[in-house]
Design goal:
alpha+beta, 2 domains, kinase, transferase, two-component regulatory system, Beta-Lactamase, transmembrane, single chain, phosphoprotein
Length: 356
């Protein structure tokens, strides 16, 4: 048989909802971040794929490259996408001097150096999220074999072709900072809502515990058959229903006790009647008042049998209180019962000159 460890209701009512709330808030926050990052990654990857298609066209038709890129740039995309070109030894090829700004120089060299250090991890055609010198980027690369002429790579039929890696990157640092701020706000709001929920749950658990203790004390008082006063109205309907049920049970117990008391009073009266009859006939025999002693002895024996039968019936009724089987019922003739009772007390009535 499995033994369960005792647990307090108040503790269970407090801990279980609290754990559910905290876990739910963590799951919501996690799902929110996963969905947001998946969306940004998918949109960025799609835009990078569009850029690579333009590069593929430029790679195949070098003369149309500049016009195509100018007409179909990524201006409509919220995250600007840039690219660098490095050779197969991960040296930066494009952009190069003269630099548009020191920021561009530092950024492109940092990215090329990072790719050189992580060339095995970041493979061709796969978008990756990386953090470089405090900035967050999405990067995707593709290898073109050809000749670099100072701007891009074009196909060349000569055997002097080299492999060049075109690396597309999107700086999502502003978005990442916004998401970090949003996460902090969400964590703060969820923490406040969780704290308020815990306070409410604690208050409710305390009220339930108080109502339960009142109900427990009332039930103990009922069991001790103490003086029952009207129970205060409890907070929850279920406890009030239990209290009403206990009150009804108490009334039923009182009725049973009253019935038992009445039964024993009746039984005492039923025992007193044959005793008086036996006593009367015995005294009559002793004082020679009754001449027919044989008849008197028969009545005494019959009254004794009646007493014995009554005692047996009392014992039988006592057994019925704990008996759970089927009771065999029997029909009796009420006229015969009345006749037997009247005959048993006829001698007493005759002595007192009563007519039955």
């Amino acid at each position: 048989m499995k033994v369960y460890k005792d647990k307090k209701l108040k503790v269970s009512l407090f801990l279980l909802p609290t754990c559910v709330i905290l876990v739910t808030l963590c799951v919501i926050l996690s799902i929110f971040n996963i969905v947001i990052h998946k969306y940004i990654s998918a949109v960025t990857s799609k835009e990078m794929d569009n850029e690579l298609k333009e590069f593929d066209i430029a790679y195949s038709s070098y003369n149309k490259k500049y016009e195509y890129l100018d007409e179909n740039g990524n201006e409509e995309f919220i995250i600007p996408i840039n690219y660098i070109i490095i050779d197969d030894e991960y040296n930066l090829v494009f952009p190069n001097e003269p630099w548009e700004s020191i920021r561009e120089k530092n950024r492109t060299k940092a990215i090329s150096n990072f790719l050189k250090d992580n060339s095995i991890v970041y493979k061709e055609g796969i978008i990756n999220k990386v953090k470089i010198e405090g900035n967050t980027y999405y990067i995707k690369s593709k290898i073109y074999k050809g000749k670099y002429d100072g701007v891009f790579v074009s196909k060349d039929s000569e055997e002097k072709d080299f492999n060049y890696i075109v690396l597309l990157y999107a700086n999502i640092t502003p978005i990442q900072k916004f998401l970090d701020l949003l996460n902090k706000i969400l964590i703060l709001l969820m923490g406040l809502s969780g704290f308020m929920s815990i306070l409410i749950i604690f208050h409710m658990a305390k009220k339930i515990d108080t109502s339960f203790h009142k109900l427990k004390s009332y039930i103990i008082k009922v069991g001790e058959r103490g003086n029952l006063s009207e129970l205060d109205n409890l907070v929850y309907t279920e406890f009030n229903d239990v209290a009403k049920t206990v009150q009804e049970m108490s009334k039923m117990i009182s009725q049973v006790e009253e019935s038992q008391k009445q039964f024993f009073q009746n039984a005492s009266h039923e025992l007193r009647t044959p005793l008086m009859s036996i006593q009367g006939y015995a005294e009559g025999i002793k004082s020679d008042v009754i001449k027919n002693k044989k008849r008197a002895a028969e009545i005494i024996i019959k009254e004794s049998e009646k007493m014995s039968s009554l005692v047996n019936e009392i014992l039988f009724l006592s057994k019925l209180e704990v008996y759970e089987g089927n009771v065999n019922k029997e029909l009796i003739d009420i006229k015969e019962l009345i006749y037997d009772c009247s005959w048993n007390i006829k001698s007493i009535a005759d002595n007192r000159k009563y007519r039955i």
